[in-house]
Write a structure and sequence with these properties.
GO terms for molecular function: hydrolase activity. InterPro entries: AB_hydrolase_fold (IPR029058), PAE/NOTUM (IPR004963). Pfam families: PAE. The protein is an alpha/beta fold. It has a single domain, classed as 3-Layer(aba) Sandwich (Rossmann fold). The chain contains 9 helices and 10 strands. Helix 2 links the parallel strand 3 and strand 4. The longest helix has 29 residues. The termini are far apart.
Length: 353
Amino acid sequence: MTVRNTKKKKHRGLKIAGTLLLVIIAIGVSGFIGLKHYITAEFPEIMDNPKVGKWYNIYPKGALSALGKQWHGNIKIGKENKVLIKFYGGGVSIDDYTEERPNIKGIKDGFYNVANLGGDNLAKRGISGTQSKNPFKDWTVITVPYSTGDFHAGAGAYEYVKEDGTEDVKYHYGYINYTKMLDEALKYIDNDPEALVITGSSAGGFGTALLADDIIGHFPNTENITVAVDSSLLLYDKWHETAENIWHAPQEISDRLTTDNITLDSLVALKENYNERVKILFDCSVRDSLLSKYQGYITNGTYAASRERGDEFQSDLKEMVNDLQEKIPGVGVFIFEGSINKDTHLTQHTISV
């Protein structure tokens, strides 16, 4: 009887992982919308005995954006005892040059968001939405907005000198914000859900890879766990130094970063820690337009898209997929194109939103 139940649980886990991949594909085909189309929607602050199916904001004390402004996350209590945690994206800062160039008015080609672009309405889109055909629509959902430039992994303030000689500070509080948010959210939900899905796209995908281990620790009895990373591949030989010295990430996170591939390092460590308990999915477009642009800056200081940069990214992605399949047996991989630029042949960035 014990063996039969174990097989049953494993089958359910594989089914959820497969379903998640299908949902991501479906959303990628029909639901990709630019952030400029979103309308800010403010949810009420969460209260005692929140209503099932209603979105709320959580304002953790001491949670800050990169500019030092109050940060908040979103939560919806579901009908089913299953939990989806989604990390938002929005660029990255890796050095003093990028620190000085966030996505704000008056700065061309900003590198990272310092506000929740798209507003709370993002929580209701994509895989965390309530579309009738979405199999996750009745799950409890926790969404973690992004405005810190640190892949949700920072835990400190970074002081630096700007090009004009003045001093500045950015608050890389991504890890602090996420931790405070999850601690508050767990007051309203069961930490023994039947299933747990951790996902995110772009910077949120990097955050998913970096923080999944930490999240799983908050759900010690859940065996059905899926981690899905959407469009998160950047090669940089200073990830460890960046995480340690600029983001001030916790040591258990920065210590995992031993190569130029921050996502691969994190996912391999995750699989080694949890083995069959966690199912890992990775998706990316073959010539990702935005990741190619960021990789251009990392590689040669040119923050621009080009056909050549797409060729290089495609080669990097091929190596990434080979490494994933070699080092993480059973990993689920989905490579897509989506919209294609006719001049550069660069492809769509993210599909899960």
